[in-house]
Amino acid sequence: xxxxxxxxxxxxxxxxxxxxxxxxxxxxxxxxxxxxxxxxxxxxxxxxxxxxxxxxxxxxxxxxxxxxxxxxxxxxxxxxxxxxxxxxxxxxxxxxxxxxxxxxxxxxxxxxxxxxxxxxxxxxxxxxxxxxxxxxxxxxxxxxxxxxxxxxxxxxxxxxxxxxxxxxxxxxxxxxxxxxxxxxxxxxxxxxxxxxxxxxxxxxxxxxxxxxxxxxxxxxxxxxxxxxxxxxxxxxxxxxxxxxxxxxxxxxxxxxxxxxxxxxxxxxxxxxxxxxxxxxxxxxxxxxxxxxxx
Length: 294
Description:
Helix content is 43%, strand content 30%. It has four helices and twelve strands; from the N terminus they run H-E-E-E-E-E-E-E-E-E-E-E-E-H-H-H. The protein has helices at residues 2-52, 194-223, 230-248, 259-285; strands at residues 56-60, 68-78, 83-92, 101-106, 109-114, 122-128, 131-132, 141-152, 160-165, 167-168, 171-180, 183-192. The strands form two sheets. Strands 4, 5, 7, 8, 10, 11 and 12 form a seven-stranded antiparallel beta sheet that branches. It has a five-stranded mixed beta sheet with strand order 1-9-2-3-6, with no helix packed on it. A hairpin with an 8-residue loop joins strand 7 and strand 8 (141-152). The two termini are 29 Å apart.
């Protein structure tokens, strides 16, 4: 009778534990579903913001008497050569019909346009990056600037309306205008887009999570005298050699040496490599004791 009561008590305890475990699992599943419902639209919105709501700025050095309207657009950023490619479109004001020709000087380039022959003049430019900190990827920042002056045939400065459009996939380009005499100074700042930053953070966290899991398996197997399965060695080895590909899958990832490498990638490679060696050594040399039932 007592044994029957004990068995029913144990069965009740196991049933309670099973229900609690199922309840916890349901909470985790609900949290995961809620996170997906929240994060998927959020990341899509950030991606749309980076593509459609492009960074723009307007500067007018003479609001009432603007003769020329210049629109600067960023076309590409060459990370390897640290060069920002952009072009400037110019359009004379319709109210200034007496203007026959003008000259645009942007940086070291100087181009003259004759309105009788040229339509929608375009000036292509390659700007060298003056300040860069690529080691902070994906929080790296790049800066450059250019001076712009528009003059007529008599080299008299013309009042200019300056517009800037910095839409560039994977980047956010902002412009800050200032004036030095009749010269417009345009300071440009390049940072990674929000989508790139979030993706880089996810890769960083995913790499650490898998590394901790693999290292935990190796430690538990070693200290608890468990048998090492071949599948554990295969999983650890495949993960070890997939780490570089996972790291380089980040958009615009620089060469090895950035802060995300010193805080994540290099340590993860070391820990997973140690776990791989531990599992192989355990599999070949260490034989756990076999317990036989009497």
